[in-house]
């Protein structure tokens, strides 16, 4: 059986932590930042952890060798 291909779009958006959780960058921090509070912008800078139901699908289908 041939090797599975990694979905490159997913590889650019997600990464795996050492314990196998799926990490991603939060949205809404690109432009039109004047209306957002400093607290909101600060919270958006930190990485998010994907919910386990979604993470299982990303690990299996999109990042098979992650």
Describe the protein's architecture and organization.
This protein is α+β, with helices and mostly antiparallel strands and 66 residues long. The chain has three helices and three strands. Strands 1-2-3 form a three-stranded antiparallel beta sheet. The protein is elongated. The mean pLDDT is 96.
Write the layout of secondary structure elements.
Layout: H1 8-13, E1 14-16, E2 22-25, H2 38-45, E3 47-49, H3 52-62
Unreliable parts:
none
Helix and strand content put the structural class at: alpha+beta
Radius of gyration: 15 Å
Secondary-structure element string: HEEHEH
Mean pLDDT: 96
Distance between the termini: 19 Å
Question: Which percent band covers the strand fraction?
Answer: 15-25%
For the sheet with most strands, the description reads: 3 strands, antiparallel
Strand order, largest beta sheet: 1-2-3
Total DSSP helices: 3
Tally the beta strands: 3
Helicity level = 25-40%
Shape: elongated
